[in-house]
Amino acid sequence: MSRAITPRRKAVNTALAWALGLLIFFPILWTVLTSFKTEATAIADPPVWFFFDWTTENYSVVQERSGYFRFFWNSVIISVGSTLLGLLIAIPAAWSMAFVPGKRTKDILMWMLSTKMLPAVGVLVPIYLIFRDTGLLDNVWGLVIVLTLINLPIIVWMLYTYFREIPGEILEAARMDGAGLRAEIVHVLTPMAVPGIASTMLLNIILAWNEAFWTLNLTAAKSAPLTAFIASYSSPEGLFYAKLSAASTMAIAPILIMGWFSQKQLVRGLTFGAVK
Amino acid sequence: MATAHSRTAARLMLAPATVLLLAWMLIPLCMTLYYSFRRYRLLTPERQGWVGFRNYENFLTNPAFRDAFVNTLILVVGVLIITIVLGILLAILLDQPMFGQGIVRILVIAPFFVMPTVSALVWKNMFLNPVNGLFAYAAKGMGLQPYDFLSQAPLASIVGIVAWQWLPFATLILLTAIQSLDSEQMEAAEMDGAGPLARFRFITLPHLSRAITVVVLIQTIFLLSIFAEILVTTNGGPGTASTNLTYLVYVESLLNYDVGEGSAGGVVAIILANIVAIFLMRAIGKNLDA
Question: Any idea where the ABC transmembrane type-1 domain is (chain B) (predicted)?
Fold first, then answer.
C-alpha cells in the first residue's frame, strides 16, 4: 500500500480490529478458560475471568470416566485414513487431467463438483441399510470409506489446481531426455507436487475431523469419533460446563493449530481454486 | 505431446476416481428411489410392498414438511446475509494497515475450525442457557429478565450459531479478494473526488462479485445440510420450530424407522437441492468464466 496513513487512523483500525477479533474468538477463549475451572467456578455468577484456582482435574476426569483417548483415536483413524485413501485415488486422476487433458476434462471436473451438491440426507437411508447389512455400522473403516468418497471431489479439484501450475515444459524436457512415465513421476513431478499434496492433505484432515453428519448417524459406542463423543454432552445429565469445556478444548486444539497453518490453502481449497 | 500410450495411461489413472464417485452417486440414489415407492418400516420389516406415491403424499402433506421447508430457507438465507454483510465489513477493516494484523486474522478465522458439535454445545450451555449462560448473567446484571433463546427463538439462535461458524470463511475469502484489488485504481478514484462510499459501491463491490458468488455457492452446499447443530441444541423443536429438511428426513427414517417415507423425503431433498444447484452453477459458471 503506497497510500499514506495517519498514525491516528492506524491506531483506530488496530483498536477496532482487535476488539472485533477478540469478540469473535471469545467463545473459544471462554471454553478454554472454563476447562481449567472447578464445576462450581464454571457457573459462578458474576462470571470469574482469570483469577481463579486453575486446575487440570477436568482433563483427567474426562479421560478416566469416558475414555477420551478412544474417541480421539477414532477421529485420527477416520480423518487421516480417509485423507490418505482419498489422495491415493485422487492423485492419479488429478495428474492425468492436469497433464493429459482431454476434450471432456472440464466436464468431468464440473461433474465431480456437482456430486457435492447431492445432499447427504438423500442417501442416508440406503447407506444406513447397506452398512447395517454388511457390518460396517459403528465401524471406523465404514466411516473411512464414506468420508473418502464425500471428500474425493474436493481432493481432486485441489490437486488439479496445484498440478496445473507445474509447467508442462519440464515434463517434455524430461521425456526428451528419455525419461519413462515412472521416472517422470518419481523424479520430476513428485518433488514439485509435494507442497500442493501436503496442503490438500492438511485441509482434508480438517474437513474430515469436523464432519458431523455421517459420523453422528453411522456410529454408536464403539467407533464414535470426537464429534459424536461431544454430542453425548447434549443430554441434561451432561451439564457439566468445566468437563464439557475440557473435552471440547482437547477436541478442537489439534485442528485449530493445523488450521492456522493452512489459512492460505484453505481459501484456495474450499473455493476449488476459484479464489487464490 | 502426449502419445497414444500416455493417453491410455491417463484414462486408466482417471478411472478409479470416476468409477467410485459414479457408484457412490448412483447406487444409493437408485436405492433411495426404490424405497421411496415401497412400504418398508424397520419395526415391521415383513410387511413390504409397492405403494405408489403414498410415501410422497405422506411426506409432502405432513405439516412438518412445510415448516421444515421454510426453516431450511430461513437458515440458508439468514446465514448467507449475515456472513456476507459482516464478512465484507470485516474484510475491508482487516485490509487496512494496523498493528498485529496476522494475529487478528488468526482470531477471526478460528471459529471455522471448531467442530459443529462443540460450537453448538458451547453456545447452548455457556452462552444461551437461561440459568447458567453468560447472556443470562448479563441480562440479570442489567436488571432484565433472562431470555430463553433456544425455546423462545430456536431457529434464530441456530442461525446465530451457524453464522458464527461461517463468518470466518466468508471473511477470509472476501479478504483474499480485496487484497488483489488494484490500489492505483483506488487512488485514481480518490483523486477524482470519489468518496469512500462511492469507491466501495463502484470499485470494491464489483471487484468482489466473483468472491461473493463463490461464498454463496459453497456455503449453500453446506448450509442445506445443517444437522449436528440442530441435533445437539434443540432436536428440531420445540415442535418443528427448528427442524430443517435434513433433520426431518433423519427423524422419519432413523427415529420413526419409516424407510419408505424417509426415502421419499430424501428424494424431495435431492430435487430441491438440484433446483438450487442449477441456478447456482449457472450463475457461478458465468462468473467464473469471466
Answer: 69-280
Could you tell me if A132 and A69 are in contact, meaning their C-beta atoms sit under 8 angstroms apart? Answer: no
Cβ of residue B77 closer than 8 Å to a chain A Cβ: no
- A273 pLDDT band, cuts 50/70/90, is low
Using the Cβ of A4 and the Cβ atoms of chain B, whether some distance falls under 8 Å is answered with no
* B237 has a pLDDT exceeding 60: yes
In the predicted model, is pLDDT for residue B289 greater than 60? Answer: no
CATH number of A67-270: 1.10.3720.10
> Which of B20, B118, B129, B274 is most worth mutating to test chain A (most A CB atoms within 10 A of its CB)?
B118
Computed over every residue of chain B, the mean pLDDT equals 88
Inter-CA distances, A112 with A117, A153, A225, B46, B70, Å: 10, 5, 27, 38, 29
Nearest to B225 among A47, A121, A274 (CB): A121
pLDDT for the residue A142: 92
Cα separation, B142 vs A138, in Å, equals: 48
Closest C-alpha to B111, from B86, B75, B136, B131: B86
* Sign of the CA dihedral with B235 first, then B238, B240, and B244 last: negative
CA of A93, closest CA in chain B: separation in Å?
4
Q: Supply the DSSP symbol for A100.
A: S
The answer to whether residue A190 scores a pLDDT higher than 50 is yes
User: What cell does A67 get?
Assistant: 475414555
Q: Give me the residue from A3, A120, A275 closest to B214, CB to CB.
A: A275
Determine the Cα–Cα distance for residues A205 and A211; give it in Å rounded to an integer. Answer: 10
Closest CA to B175 of B239, B87, B245: B87
Band the pLDDT of A239: cuts 50, 70, 90: low
Alpha-carbon gap, residue B245 to B13, rounded angstroms:
38
Q: Is the Cβ–Cβ distance between A146 and A218 less than 8 Å? A: yes
Residue to substitute from B38, B104, B191, interface A, most A β-carbons within 10 A: B104
Q: Which three cell numbers stand for residue A99?
A: 497433464
Q: What is the DSSP string of A185-251?
A: IIIIIHHHHHHHHHHHHHHHHHHHHH--SHHHHS--TTT--HHHHHHGGGSGGG--HHHHHHHHHHH
Query: Which amino acid type is present at position A69?
Result: F
Hey, where are the domains in chain A?
7-59, 67-270
* The one-letter amino acid at B225: S
Which CATH fold would you assign to the domain B54-289? MetI-like fold (1.10.3720)
B98 DSSP 8-state letter: -
Distances (CA, A) of B203 to B164, B200, B209: 28, 6, 11
Among A43, A138, A275, most B C-beta atoms within 10 A, so best to mutate, is A275
Residue A174 touches partner B, C-beta closer than 8 Å? no
How far is B167 from B161, CA to CA, in rounded Å? 10
Q: How far apart are CA B155 and CA B135, in angstroms?
A: 17
Average pLDDT over residues A133-161: 91
